[in-house]
Design a protein that fits this description.
homotrimer, 352 residues, alpha/beta, Udp-n-acetylmuramoylalanyl-d-glutamate--2,6- Diaminopimelate Ligase, Chain: A, domain 1, 10-stranded parallel sheet, 9-stranded parallel sheet, 17% helix, flat
C-alpha cells in the first residue's frame, strides 16, 4: 500500500493517535524501516531517545516523532504523542500481516478419510491430517505439520511447517503455532517401581484457546488426566516447555526458554521473562511478573514481581544482590571488627 | 475396557495392591478422571490431601482412597494403601497405552533400496528411511521422521513425527522418541585456528539402550569418536541437550530443559530437575539428584543431592540461601557492631 | 583412506605440525578411535594426561603423543608437539567430512514454479522450496526442510531434515543448519493495548553469513524491521534462541541452550557457555566470554569474561561465591562479635 503523509496522519488520527504532518503532506511512503536503513519512500520513527542523532542522517522520506522533537530541515515529520504505537499501526497499515501460500488442499497432503476440513482451508503438500480430525474454515496447515486423530482445530488457525499436534488436542480460533512446536506429547509421567520407571498412560489432552500464538520449537505436554490449558490471547516465544496438567491464563506473555513444570496454575496477564523456571503444583497470581532466569519455588501473589533463585519479591532480590556484591567488603569489616574487639578485650584483661 | 468395582479391586489386589470395595461392587467404570472432572462411569482418586474437600462434590462413580479416608454416603470407595500407585495401574488397565495408526509400510514413505524393515512395522507417509538402515519388528515410524544411513532401530521402537536420527546411530528395543527430537547431530567440535573455528568431523554415533523414552524437541549429539550413550530405561522430558561423548546410565530421569555438556559420565538412577546444567568432563555418581537450575561444575558423589550455582550439597545450599536472604540484616548488625565498638574504643581512649 | 604411518607423519608435517614416527613406519591406519576403543588399523592419541595409563592397554596400531611421552614397547608412536591438533587433522584426512545422499532434485520434493536451484544441488524427497527462492550450486536440502518464498540460499549450503526457513531470509555460502532448527519465525512483537497483546507484523528477515554452522532445534527470530544477523564463521550448538533484531559478529561460539534477547549487539569472536542468557538492547564486546548460566543485564566490555546472575567480571563473581559459601561461618562470627562486644559493654557499664 502507498499512502501520502496526509493520508497516513489521517489514518493514525482515526485510530486514536492524533498526528500532524510537519512537512510535505503529499510525499508518499510504502514501507517502514529503521532510521539507519530507511531510504526513499520509507517511513521511519524515533521512539528511543538513544537513536536521536540518527535523525540528522536518515534518508527516510518521513519520520514519526514526538511533538517536541526537532528534525533537520528537509526531513518530513509526522508528529504524534506515542511514535512507537503509531509506527506499529503504520506497519500493519502499509505491510499487512503475512500472506500464506494458497495450496488449497494439496493432493500431496495426507488426509485421512475421516478428517473434516473447513472451507477455504489450506493444507500444504506433505502435511498430515489423521482420522477424526476437524479443521476450521480458512485454517492454514503448512507442509510437514502433523495432526493426530481426534484433534479439533479452529477457524483461521495457522500451523507452520513441522508443527506436531498429538491426538485429541483442541485449538481455538485464530491460534498460530510456529514451526517445529510440539503440542500434546506425553509428559514425564512414570511410577517408580523398584528403581525403574513404569509409564503412566497420559490420557488427557491440551486445550489452546482463541488467539493464542506460540513460538517455534516449544513443547506443551498433554495432561495425565484432564487438560493442559493455554488461555485466550496468550503469547509464547520459542523453546518454551510446559508440563502436564499446567493451566495458563489469558493474555500472558512468555519469553524464550521459559519452563513451567506440571500442575502449575498461572493466572491471567502474567509475564515471564527469558529462561524463568517454575516448579510444579504452585500458583502464579494474575498480573504477576517473573524475572529473567528466576527459579520460582513458591506461590507468587497477584501483581507482584519476583526475581532470583529461589525467586523472591524483586526489591528483596535487588537488596540481596547489592549486599552480595559488597560481601567481600563486609567480610573485611567483620575481620577488622574482630581485630579491634580482640585488642579491646586484651586491654581490658590487662586492666584487671 | 469396562470393569465392575469388584473386578477392579480384584485386579489391583492381584497386582500387589490389596484393595477393598466400600460401596456397590457391581457399579462399573470405564475411564479415569480427576475428582473435579469425573462423571458417571468414571473412576477417580485421592492421593494428595489438599484435594480432600473435592470428595464431597465429585460426581465420579468411584474413588480410590486410603483405608482411613471418609467419603460421603453414596460415593463408592475402593480402599487401598497407595491410591496413587493404584490409579496408575487402573489407568493402564482401563485405557491401555496409545494405539498407533496402522499404515503398514506406506507407499508414500521413502524407503531406500538397502533398508531392511521388520515384520509388523509401520512406516508412515512422508517418513524417510535411508540406505543400510535396519528397523526391528513392530516398530512405528511416524510421518516426517528421518532415519539416516546405517542406523539400527530395535523392535517395537516408536519414532513420533519429525524425529531425525543421523547416520549410524543405534536404538535398542522399545525405545520411544517424541516428536521433533534430533539424535546424532554433530556436537560443537571445532579446532581453534587463528581465531577461526575449523570443523572436526564427528565420526562417532549415539547408542540408546532398550526401554528409553525421550521427550519432544531434545538434541543428543553424536560422539566425536566412539559413542554418546543413553542407558537402559532412562526417561527424558523435553528440550534436553546432551553433548558429544556423554554417557548416561540406566534408569535416570531428566526433567525438561536440562543441559549436559560433552564427555560427562552420569551414573545410574540419577535424577536431574528442570533447567539443570552440567559442565563437561565430570562424573555424576549413581543415585545422585541434581536440583532445578543447578549449575554443576564438579563431580557429584553417589547418592548426594546438589543444588545452586555453582552446585553444592543441598543442605549447604539451603543454609547459604537462608543467610543470603537475611544478608541485609547481617549487614545492619555489622554496622551496629562497628558503631558500638567505636564508641567503646573512644571511651577507652578517653579513659587513658 | 589408508595411510602408512610414514605417510601420515609426512602429511601432518606438511600441515605445519612436525611429526616423527617412533616405530614401524610401514604400518597402516585407516581410522581414528579413542585409546579405549581403538583396535587393529586404528590411530589413537593422547592429549589429556588423565588418560595416560590407557597407553599401556590400548590396542591401537599407532598413537599420536607428545615427544616426551613414553609408550610401551611394541606400540607405534607418532610424536608431535600438539597431538590434539594433529588428531583433528588426521580425522579429516582419514575420514573426510560427512557425505550427503545424492538425490539430485527428487521428484518427491515440492519445488514451486518460480524457484531457481543451482547445478549440483540436492533437494531430497519431501523437501519444500517455495516460490521465488534461489538455491546455490551444490547445496543439499534434506527431506522435510521447508524454505519459504523469497529466500536466498548460498552455494554448498546444507539444510538437515526438517529445518524451516521463513520468507525472505538470506543464507551465505557453506552455511550448515542442523535438523529441526527454525530460522526467521516471528519474534515476540506485540503492542500492549488494554491488557491485550496486538501483533506487530515482523517484516524484517534473518541474514546468515558464510561458513556459519547452527546446531539442532535452534530458533532465530526475524527482525521486526531490518535484519537479525549471524556473522561469518560463527558456530552454534543446539536449542539456542536468538531474539528479533539481534546482530551477532563473526567467529562466535555459542554452547547449547544459550538465549539472547532482541536488539542485542554481539561483537566478533565472542564465546557464550551453556544456558547463558542476555537481556535485550545491550552490547557484548569483541572477544568477550560469557560463562555458563550467566545472566547478562549490562554491556560487557571487549575481552572480558563475565559470570553470575546478574553477571559480573569473573573474578568478582568467584570472590562473591567464595564468600557466600562461607557465609554461615561469617554469620556465626558476627554472632560471636556481638556476644563478646555485649560482654565488654556490660563490663564497661559495671565499671562506671
Amino acid at each position: 500500500m502507498i499512502l501520502t503523509l496526509a493520508e497516513l496522519a489521517e489514518f493514525l488520527t482515526s485510530q486514536g493517535m492524533p498526528c500532524e504532518v510537519d512537512g510535505a503532506a503529499s510525499v508518499t511512503v510504502s514501507s517502514v524501516a529503521t532510521l539507519e536503513d530507511a531510504g526513499e519512500g520509507q517511513l521511519s520513527f524515533l521512539a528511543n531517545p538513544k537513536y536521536e542523532s540518527q535523525l540528522s542522517t536518515t534518508r527516510a522520506s518521513a519520520v514519526l516523532v514526538k511533538p517536541e522533537v526537532r528534525v533537520s530541515r528537509g526531513l518530513n515529520a509526522l508528529r504524534t504523542a506515542n511514535p512507537y504505537a503509531a509506527v506499529t499501526a503504520a506497519i500493519v497499515r502499509l505491510h499487512g500481516h503475512r500472506e500464506h501460500p494458497q495450496w488449497g488442499i494439496s493432493d500431496r497432503a495426507f488426509i485421512a478419510r475421516g478428517a473434516v476440513i473447513g472451507s477455504g482451508a489450506n493444507v500444504g503438500p506433505g502435511a498430515h491430517v489423521d482420522d477424526d480430525v476437524q479443521i476450521g474454515d480458512d485454517a492454514t496447515i503448512y507442509p510437514g505439520a502433523y495432526i493426530a486423530r481426534g484433534c479439533r482445530i479452529g477457524r483461521s488457525v495457522t500451523l507452520f511447517p513441522n508443527v506436531v499436534i498429538y491426538e485429541n488436542c483442541v485449538l481455538g480460533d485464530r491460534v498460530t503455532i510456529h514451526a517445529g512446536t510440539v503440542i500434546g506429547e506425553d509428559g514425564l509421567g512414570y511410577a517408580p517401581v523398584n528403581d525403574k520407571w513404569v509409564k503412566i498412560p497420559q490420557i488427557g489432552n491440551v486445550v489452546i484457546h482463541d488467539d493464542v500464538e506460540i513460538g517455534a520449537n516449544c513443547t506443551i505436554d498433554r495432561a495425565t488426566l484432564g487438560s493442559s490449558v493455554i488461555g485466550r490471547g496468550t503469547k509464547f516465544s520459542n523453546l518454551i516447555a510446559i508440563g502436564h496438567g499446567t493451566k495458563i491464563g489469558d493474555d500472558c506473555l512468555f519469553v524464550a526458554q521459559v519452563g513451567v513444570a506440571g500442575s502449575v496454575s498461572v493466572g491471567r496477564h502474567v509475564t515471564m521473562a527469558g529462561q524463568a523456571g517454575i516448579v510444579g503444583h504452585i500458583t502464579i497470581g494474575d498480573n504477576a511478573t517473573v524475572g529473567a532466569k528466576a527459579g520460582v519455588t513458591n506461590t507468587v501473589e497477584p501483581g507482584t514481581t519476583v526475581l532470583g533463585q529461589p525467586a523472591v519479591p524483586i526489591n528483596d532480590c535487588k537488596r540481596q544482590v547489592a549486599v552480595v556484591q559488597r560481601l567481600p567488603e563486609l567480610k573485611n569489616e567483620v575481620r577488622r571488627l574482630r581485630r579491634d574487639l580482640d585488642r579491646l578485650m586484651k586491654q581490658r584483661e590487662n586492666d584487671e
